[in-house]
């Protein structure tokens, strides 16, 4: 736990802050906050009647189960407490998903901050309302479609079911199938054999599952109410949007339509707002004023259609204005908007124009019948919410623009493998906000953006600026090895153990660039491999000292430039070294892993590694090569303990002894220096051992070689001081911790692999014996 907290400290702080906010809210407003819609949900408990204004997904999937689990009969405090816990888990889930997709720890943590710390989010969780469940389902759909890379039909179908359920929670989810299908058509083409048939099949699976839920619910409504519908609403939603802009005198209206066209001037209608006209026929006395038998729902529907056809500019401009309101820097309210204070903490219990006796009646029915507001805590919450405790709309807008820029290929996005992943949350967010704006503007309807837009923005920024580990040595290949939708690559089938992390998107980009520069040109039998990052000041002298032959064999030099920000690559090319340029800095281990594969694929027989900083004496190269040529060893490594070291760092020297003792004790083979970087090996050795570390790879390679039973030989060598530049390894304590983790982790992994291989051999022998016995009889 301590290790997890250190690694994810920013997330831990945000979770602590979010939990504190929710505890304060729980204490400030007891037992819960009830809104107008809350009573509809409560009234439907146990009945689950689909003919109401809202579909019944919230009651069935969340409210009903929570009320059943409540320690007391319908304890509202338990329900909202559970919702608060789900809200915290929602933030953590965003973090986990983004880390899975290769986003850095700090950026992933900031992306979940809106859900964890936004007071409007906390307030809605304290209500008996469906919004939190809708957010959870949206995140679930995003996770399903991106977690395992480009989705196949089965995963797409599961995501379609989740999106279908979101419609049963909030009708605004009905349009979300569109961006989901677009994403699937794009992402499915990135799978192996991902042609158009594959894309269409995956999209069809998504759509079929979505329709199965939505249409199935429609038939359930038909069997219950006699109408095929998703809710009992009429055309009042579209009517409200058109009523505030309708030019009744200029429209060719029927007598029925004239009745529902408002008499007030347009300016007065817009002051009253869309919400007023959506519910106008529910106000007391309005229905009584209509002619007997008048079908106002049909009149509303036909009236709205005429307004849309004759005044499309007025309708669309109103929708666009309401869509853009969500990106305002502060929480503002325009004339006609749904009142903002409905979503703000109040100093007294908010009844929202509902008679207090009516609220108390529900409290008597489902709770203990008491309300309590701690004014001091409520005052603090309100102050927090109105001052800085919300996510500025401009921040959400910038995140949306960042995801759009990534989709367009800005910066490093074209090579990131994240462009399709950006499309999904950005598309879902834009669609759900646009659909809500088509009805009316309310800050409540902006809450899905707190989940989707930070995900989209974090992915977009990662794509544009490059995916890098949070530290130079502590990350595994998970952070850099990705599929086209951004997820870390999973272990491949066992062509060799090394293929568990190779090649990823970055590797492929570097190999393509190398092939464009050198064509199919092969290597000499011996390749000296150098991984270099920002070594322009030192690498020239190292390359100048490289021999063209050694032990009677030709020697080529290969420099893998690991995302350097200086002129290392240009210096290497100028000194006639084969140069492979990696666009993203990932660490020495990842660079060497790429170099091993490149050397093996282009004909090298032996590969020797040395550093770009001049700390190894290239004149000692024959000592490494000759035992390999004579087949006395498969892997030859230098040892500063058998030779000499010019370093004055006593702690590093002590670490050399300690790690050598640990590896020797655990492998049963004497090793004096586990981290000497000047090594020679047969090329198949480097490409067989499983290599995952982006840094501290020297110990991983040595331990892996020993575990595979290769013949290892140590030779006395010299460790020189750096000729220029500075070490990239960090301070001694951090270096020692990370190095220990790699050594012990590799030993543990190889032991498990050996146990698995041994069990496989036993199983094979048993199978062979069984087959022989069967054949004998």
Give the overall shape.
Answer: elongated
Q: What's the alpha carbon Rg, rounded to whole Å?
A: 33 Å
Mean pLDDT: 84
- How many structural domains does the protein architecture include? 3
The N- and C-terminal alpha carbons lie at a distance of 58 Å
What oligomeric state is this? single chain
Class of secondary structure makeup: alpha/beta
Transmembrane segments: 76-97, 132-149, 155-188, 200-220, 388-408, 420-439, 445-466
Region (Disordered): 472-501, 754-777
Domain Glycosyltransferase 2-like: 528-686
GO molecular function, one term: transferase activity
In words, what does this structure look like?
By secondary structure, the protein is of the alpha/beta class. The chain folds into 3 domains: 2-232 and 335-463, no CATH class; 238-324, no CATH class; 513-757, Spore Coat Polysaccharide Biosynthesis Protein SpsA, Chain A (Alpha-Beta Complex). It is elongated, with a radius of gyration of 33 Å. The relative contact order is 0.08. Mean pLDDT is 84; it is low at 468-500.
Chart the SSEs and their pairings.
Elements: H1 2-7, H2 9-28, E1 29-30, H3 36-43, H4 57-69, H5 76-100, H6 105-117, H7 119-125, H8 131-146, H9 153-169, H10 177-187, H11 196-225, H12 236-243, H13 255-260, H14 266-272, H15 274-278, H16 296-310, H17 312-325, H18 356-366, E2 372-373, H19 375-387, H20 393-407, H21 419-439, H22 447-465, H23 505-518, E3 526-532, H24 539-544, E4 549-550, E5 553-562, H25 568-574, E6 578-582, H26 588-601, E7 606-611, H27 621-629, E8 635-645, H28 650-667, E9 679-682, H29 683-686, H30 697-707, E10 712-719, H31 732-776
Parallel strand pairs: 3-5, 3-7, 5-6, 8-10
Antiparallel strand pairs: 1-2, 4-5, 7-9, 8-9
Helix pairs in contact: 2-5, 2-6, 2-19, 5-6, 5-8, 5-22, 6-22, 8-9, 8-21, 8-22, 9-11, 10-11, 10-21, 12-16, 17-21, 20-21, 20-22, 21-22, 28-31, 30-31
Biased composition (Polar residues): 767-777
Pfam families: Glycos_transf_2 (PF00535)
GO molecular function: transferase activity
